[in-house]
Design brief:
mainly alpha; Serine Threonine Protein Phosphatase 5, Tetratricopeptide repeat; 0% strand; Ankyrin repeat domain-containing protein; Ankyrin_rpt-contain_sf; ANK repeat
Length: 67
């Protein structure tokens, strides 16, 4: 799905109402390959959400080692 979204110029740096990016959500769901894909296409690990959490913090909270 990510390659299709990317082909249509999807932005991986946008946030939702809680300021989560797609990278935050992928970190929560232990989607390491998806995170790498998004970072290569404009996503970032440096954006904090409304709870002041980086994606790496989300991964640690959910004990996701692949994220």
């Amino acid at each position: 799905l990510l390659p299709i979204l990317s082909a249509y110029s999807a932005r991986f740096d946008l946030t939702d109402q809680s300021l989560n990016t797609p990278v935050h959500l992928a970190a929560r769901l232990n989607q390491g390959k998806s995170i790498k894909f998004m970072i290569q296409r404009g996503g970032t690990m440096k954006t904090k959400n409304a709870d002041n959490q980086l994606p790496i913090k989300i991964a640690k909270i959910f004990k996701n080692k692949n994220a």
